[in-house]
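Example 174, ligand adenosine-5'-diphosphate.
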Amino acid sequence: MTQPIFLIGARGCGKTTVGEALTRACGFIFIDTDQALQAKAQKSIAEIVEEEGWSAFRARETATLQSVTQPATVIATGGGIILSPVNRDFMRNNGIVIYLNAPVSVLAERLEAFPEEAQRPTLTGKPISEEVHEVLAQRDALYRQTAHHVVDASGAPEAVVREILTALQVARAS
Ligand SMILES: Nc1ncnc2c1ncn2[C@@H]1O[C@H](COP(=O)(O)OP(=O)(O)O)[C@@H](O)[C@H]1O
Ligand SMILES: O=C(O)C1=C[C@@H](OP(=O)(O)O)[C@@H](O)[C@H](O)C1
Ligand SMILES: [Mg+2]
């Protein structure tokens, strides 16, 4: 199986962290759409949003998603990638999509410890835990409708990788 694997989910669910670990476990190449986008733009996400607005960031995100997708690749996406129906269809039709699902309390705890504001400018202007709650309520259904598999992402990265590998093996066997 060399189909690309897309990791989706809220800010802080571990797409980047788990994606790197998953890549080591399955011998694929790792790509993070936010990292690729920032390298190409030579600007941080906070700078892009400040100078060009969120819609310009979203357009760059769609172009990046399409340009990085290739076989044998784990693609960690940004939390808002599922807002675009074009991105949702693209991922579902071009690979296996895994939703890393974690409760608001876990997401907020991780983001409060490592806010990485250059990559995560505020979406609502509200404090982190309020924002995480509000944004997840808006997006959870979109993550679920886009995903082929939903995985519990509240454990340690190695445990999440094991769950993903199990889901992929079960899918291949059936
Ligand atoms: N499974 C995990 N267990 C504990 N901490 C994690 C886990 N996954 C991610 N983290 C931590 O949470 C923060 C956000 O993780 P990251 O991989 O950047 O999430 P995402 O890319 O989904 O926004 C990082 O500081 C990371 O070290
Ligand atoms: O949830 C979002 O809308 C965003 C999530 C971020 O990625 P992470 O989910 O990797 O933090 C990044 O793409 C950008 O700040 C927008
Ligand atoms: Mg990330």
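Summary: Residues 58 and 80 are 8 Å apart (CA to CA).
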